[in-house]
Every structure is written in structure tokens, then in C-alpha cells.
Amino acid sequence: MSYVSDLRLVLQGRDFRRLFGTRLVSQFSDGVFQFGVAGYAFFSPEQQTTAVQVATGLAVLLLPYSVLGPFAGVFIDRWSRRQILVIAPIIRCALLMVAALLVATGAPDGWFYAAALGVLGVNRFFLAALGASLPHVVPAERLMVANAVTPTSGTVITFVGVGAGYLLRLAFGAGHSGTALLLVTSGVVFGLSALIASTMARSLLGPAFDPDRPQAREAVRHVTRGLADGLRHILHHRRAAAALGAMSTHRFMYGMCTALLIMLYRYYFSHDPEEALAGVALVLGTSGVGYFAAALITPWATERFGISTWVPAMLASAGILSFALCVPFQEWGFPVAGFVLGITGQSVKICADTAVQRDIQDAYLGRVFSIYDMLFNGVYVLAAALAAMMLPHDGRSYAVLVIIGLGYLLGAAAYRVALPSRLPEPDGTTA
Fold first, then answer.
1. CATH number at residue 167
2. How many CA atoms lie within 13 A of 133 on its CB side?
3. Is position 167 within any domain?
4. Which of 118, 197, 307, 407 has most Cβ atoms within 10 angstroms of its Cβ?
5. Do residues 372 and 131 make contact, with C-beta atoms less than 8 angstroms apart?
6. How far apart are CA 21 and CA 155, in angstroms?
7. In whole angstroms, what is the distance from residue 353 CA to residue 424 CA?
């Protein structure tokens, strides 16, 4: 099926349309926010950027997802997920206004990053609730289609938001006042997602009632135990566990790519911060096109070949092509590599989302998606930190490219090894 026909199929459900709209509006706002913070942290004319600063900035922006992950799972398995989707955007909007004020008044960077941590902490609950809610608005047989068009569409609209942020930066200016206006814009747009979510019934999105589930206060005291329960549940579902491993492989290599890319464009391809930001925006744009392409081809490919064949094929292709395109260190190769990694990343994510939602019991979905997000962001930050220790000042490193290429290939092999032989696919085919 084509992307348009897939989208038309799942849009037949009224509640799906509302959840889908909530995702699109919120993730467009994410794109504007991420571009504003990246421009402020990495491409500000007022300061120099080092690989260590890149890794530190990525850690500040992403580690809340990992730190809050277990706690988010506890509450998402107990609170009305619809209420999370209504209240979280309002809180985030308020925090973004505070962050904008801090930037506009020239407050110390530490205060700004503290506000950004709050914004991303709230967003952690929001995104996990979105992921756990999807099975409640589409039938099980349409989950693959839904996972092809919803998170993918959300990611593509995030790239659109990045593009809008770039255009707004040109209009508002590259200084602190321009960044503040970007944050205000992001906050207002994100607040609109609460209006869409409020049109859904409070009990629609779960969680399912479980009389044996402990109260939230008790669960918070035993977060580690709950996280271990979720991990054991994953390990008893090898298809889901292998898919999470494949997703983690891509995110680790993508984290190294991000640090490499920022340093190359900042100091190797250009010495002007605005030119460097434009180059990085181009790579992100081609990566966004790759994400959209993944939505077109992944449902067809997994139906024909099966998830257990498509995932390692994507990882292996990414390893070979990214190395071949980037090793000359010519600027033209990086946008093309961005497109390749966009297809790979979103293809693997669609498969991982589907494996988790099909195989994991609803009572565990919140905790499992928390582990998912911990891996998604934690390995990305870890990879950026590793790259920071290896990258020279201008970012030109053959060793990092070799690690990225081999890492994808080893990840593809490990995925196949992790699956039991002749494992039935959900569509009836075998591995």
C-alpha cells in the first residue's frame, strides 16, 4: 500500500484522527524548539563550540528522557493517558515562556538549560503517552500501517518544524532576542495540541484496569523493581527485544554522526556560524525526506520480506553507504548520507514500535516504552560523548567513520543472532 492509502485507511477512525492531530501539532512545535536550542547552543556567533560542548549540550537536551523514564512508565500505566496529553502541553508552554524570558534578559546559560530540562522532562511524559495510546485507537491488524504513518509523520513534521525554525531565525535574527521569539512560538503551538487532545474521551487511551497493580505512591518507591519487571517482560518477547536492540544500534551510530556533523560544518566546511547552521539544516532536511521515504517503503517491505529480514538489511545498508559517502569528506556526501540514515532510522523505528505494541501486554506498555525511550536517548548521548573524545577540533576523523560503518554491520548481525530460528512473523511468514 502507498503512504497516502495507508494514511487514508487509518484516518477512518475518528479517535485516531484526534490522536494523530495531537502528535502532529506537538512535534511541529518540537522542531521549532530543537532548532532554537541547537542554534543557541552550537551555532551562536558569541561563542566557540567544541566536541565536548556538543556532547554536553546533547546530554542536557536528551538525558531527561532517560532519567525520568522509569517514573514516567509508572504514571502512564496508572494515569489517564488522555489527561497527560491535555495537561503536559500547558505546562510545557509555560516553561517555554520562562525559557524565552531568560534568553531575552541575558540570564546565565545554566538557568536557560534548567528551563530546557523542565521542558523536555514534561515532553518525556507526553511522548511516552502518545506511544502507549496508539493501540487504543486502531485495531491490532492495522498497527503496522499506523506505525508507518503516525510516528513517521510526526518525525517528518518535526523536520518541517526545524525548517520553520530556520526561516523564523532568518526573520527574527540570530541573537538572543530571536531565540526568545522562537521559544515563544514553539510554546504557543505546543499549547494548541492540548485543545485537540481534550476532544477525546478521558478513558479512551487507557491504561487497562489491573486490580493487582500497586498504587502509584508505592510504585514510585519501587521504581527500580518496576523497571526490572518491564525489562524481564521484554526479554520474554524476543522479537521485541531484538527490535529494541536494532533501534539502539542505529541511535548509537546516529549519535556519533551528529557530533561528527556539527564539528565538520562548524570548523571544516565553514568558519561562519550561519553558513554552518545552513549546512546542518540541509542535512537534516534530506534526513527528513528519508524519514518520509521510510513510511512509503517499510509497510510494503515488511509485508514482502518480514521485519526480521528488513531490519538487518536496513542496518547493513546504512553501514556500507554512510561510510562510502562520508569517507571522502566532501560536503556533498553528507546530505546524501543524511537521506540514507533517515530511511534506516525510521524503518527500524517503525519495526520496533510495531514489535513492542504487538508483543507487549498493555499493562506493561508504559514501562516498556519508558525503557524504549531510555535506550533511544541514552545510547545517543553516550555515542556523542564517545565521539567527543575521539574527534579532532575540525571533526575530520576516519576512525569515527570506521566505527560507525562497522557498528551498523555488527548490529545487523546481532539482530539476526538474537532471533530464534524460523520465528513466525505477525503476518504468518517466518524469519
1. 1.20.1250.20
2. 31
3. yes
4. 307
5. yes
6. 13
7. 18
Distance CA 148, CA 107 (A): 42
Q: Is residue 208 part of a domain?
A: no
> b/e string for 384-423 if b means 16 or more Cβ within 10 A?
bbbbbeebeeebbbeebbebbbebbbebbeebbebbeeee
Instruction: For residue 92, tell me if it sits in a domain.
Output: yes
Residue 399 pLDDT level (bands cut at 50, 70, 90):
very high
DSSP structure class, residue 266: I
Is 173 a member of any domain?
yes
For 347-362, the pLDDT digits (tens) are 999 899 888 888 887 7
- Give the pLDDT score at 421: 61
* 410 to 163, 316, 323, 401: CA distances (angstroms): 34, 8, 14, 14
DSSP 369-410: HHHHHHHHHHHHHHHHHHHHHH--TT---HHHHHHHHHHHHH
- How many domains, the chain? 1
Structural domain range at position 178: 3-202+230-418
